[in-house]
Description:
- The complex is a heterodimer of chains A (about 325) and B (about 500).
- With about 325 residues, chain A is mainly α.
- Chain A contains 14 helices and 2 strands; from the N terminus they run H-H-H-H-H-H-E-H-H-H-H-H-E-H-H-H.
- In chain B, strands 6-9-10-3-11-12 form a 6-stranded mixed beta sheet, sandwiched between helices. A 6-stranded mixed beta sheet of chain B has the order 18-19-20-15-21-22, sandwiched between helices. A 4-stranded antiparallel beta sheet of chain B has the order 2-1-4-5, with helices on one face.
- Chain B starts with a strand and ends with a helix.
- Chain B: It is a peripheral membrane protein.
Amino acid sequence: MDSISTETKPGLIAGIRTSGAFHKLLAFSGLIALLVVFSLASPNFMQTQNVLAILQATSVNGVLAIAATLVIITGGIDLSVGTLMTFCAVIAGVILTFLGLPLPLGVLGAILAGTAAGLVSGTIIAKLKVPPFIATLGMMLILKGLSLVISGTRPIYFNDTPGFTQIAQGSLIGSIIPALPVPNGVLILFLVAAVISFILGKTALGRYTFALGSNEEAVRLSGVNVDRWKIAVYALAGSVCGVAGLLIASRLNSAQPALGQGYELDAIAAVVIGGTSLSGGRGTVLGTLIGALIISVLANGLRILSVAQEWQTVVTGCIIILAVYADILRRRNL
Amino acid sequence: MSALVEMVDIDKSFPGVRALNKAKFELLAGEVHALMGENGAGKSTLMKILSGVYQRDAGSILLDGQAVDIASPRQAQDMGIGIIHQELALMRDLTAAQNIFIGREPRRMGGLLLDEAALNAQAATIFASMNLKLDPRVQVGGLTIARQQMVEIAKALSYKSRVLIMDEPTAALNDAEINELFAIIGRLKAEGVGIVYISHKMDELKRIADRVTVMRDGEYVGTVPAATTPIETIISMMVGRTLSNETPAFPDVSAAPVALDVRGLRRGREIRDVSFSVRKGEILGLAGLMGAGRTEVARAIFGADPIEAGEVFVNGEQVRISAPQDAVRAGIGYLSEDRKHFGLATGLDVRNNIALASLSRFTGPAGVLRESAMRDTAQGYIRQLAIKTPSDSQEARLLSGGNQQKVVIAKWLLRDCEVLIFDEPTRGIDVGAKSEIYKLLNALAAQGRAIIVISSELPEILRLSHRIAVMCEGRLTGFLPGGASQEDIMRLATMRPSAVAETEPNRKTA
């Protein structure tokens, strides 16, 4: 190994520079700084209950942001994650409340609905060559409309399915360790993060996700069926949106068909703050997770400090711009 | 013995261009077959058809005497046809090993997971067989062009191809790397692999090729043995006539005032202390291999990229250029190598493209554009430069490459640029239109404009330049008078000050 010249050696600096770890570090230190500031400003902030509330509040946006991360690494964008989440929740409502089928079928149906919608988006993008922005903008409206049509524009309640609220609000960990009542929603967020991280890092699907964002033409010239893998990525992202749909429905004990639009922007914000490049080829689930946490911590902390909701939005906007600017500075300097 | 590959009467058209017309090609096992022709002759198109990137319109392909259809790159690979593309087709964010095995990653756990260890080990084996010292885990985006090229070659080797197509593989390599590559080619040849070798470098043909097939304007010209055919014969086959040896008469501009003077330009490893000047009426050729820093210098002068140090004087007065608008104000125009991306608003019509850099001149009170004045000006240039377009309201993207280039030239002429920098002015332009562009450049110089031409094609540099500056690895390695020999240019273009320093440590530990 010692014969390798410095140019080719993946040294510490080079490794950090290229893997985006530096940005994660930056986002991570940003998160730590926020935690320190808020805990100094208010003694209530670091209470177990508040920390769990922050995590629970992160769960839906976190899962959605992970779905968005997958698509953004391919160099695409998915504007439909928010309304797809709602659509999946409505499908769960149809299966459980309208049809009265058992809970596992509702869970499965919601996730499969997400997969199917992702397949459709992916096919439109890969086969019909419609740009991702337009294709998913169309899907966003289609899914929003379908949710309203299917539900008859009224919320669908899950009162007849008693276990349903447990999906997000119960606490498996709490039932084993009563001192640590981590809600299942948080558990599911971390589970999804782990699974997607694993897929990105260890499987062919993950490899092609990065390869597509890096140089799609090169992947095609390598003899890889680019269309099929691209569709697969959107389908996987759709499935993850299905999970988010279950989480939000479980937390609200209802599928709210009018909800969902706007969630995609929060998700994309988390992805960007987490250091994933919108031009594709680069990104991590961990970064996205940190990005989602920063958004929730900000919202929670500012609320505890009695800052008005309007100003919270302003601050989040500033953070997004700052995070990307920091990334640009980093690239220029190294 | 039937040929390994036989391509017969291949036709291929793209919108507006007939790329191949009854082209043919034959490759034997264990042979290095050079494919030659000027840019636009159809070599790359023919090989892209053989490697499944393009589909032929007519004709047949025989592999081992059997007619085949090659529908995709994947299918070509399965048939044992590998290609190293001229434009590097690598994924910058992936590692060298990941690039090599994209689409064929070794798996474990019943195919569920990628076997990264096996991947890196297999890549290391290939690198070892190439005598290449490279960590398979290094990210490709951080490698030099030469090393990226080596990764491409490793990738092609990994397919265990029976047919290996190399499209200008040595364009970015230095002498030592070229020797390394030729050794690998020799080994493959001995194993019975048929190698198609596309190159412009005559000396390379003599070194490694067995036969040479020449193409011109998309048509087959002939096939000759490499060893016994004089280079002059091959060149005359390529250009379709015997080249007269007369050197073009270059005007004497030594008394003309200096239009552009660049002193001590620097930026990191890309531009290292570059100084030169161009006189009014002079065409300065900027030669060098891929990655030598020619485009970087041009973009730096133009203010498109930042510099660390350096001064620019126009007509003897120092100008501060920190953005392209400063350069344009000082009378410097830059025609980029990638017209579609940087030079031309392809969606706009010819009129607006010509006026684009001078819109303020056509702005009336209240900011309204005076379309009739713009139309008259555009039509004037269309006549003057003989731009072939149905009208000035034709969208620029519908014009041929040569006419698009003329539109860009018109844009800068309208802007009254005294100094014009042409970066690969004839890339993607067919042979006929090329000579028109050459005439235009000569005419512009005769009008007293100072012109810098960057070109990777030595014949182009030699034909146009009154004086030639040669770069290597960010440094100006020397100036040559117009009409210098290709060998002189290549010698300066491969004068690598860092070559010694880079190979030394390797040798010690290897």
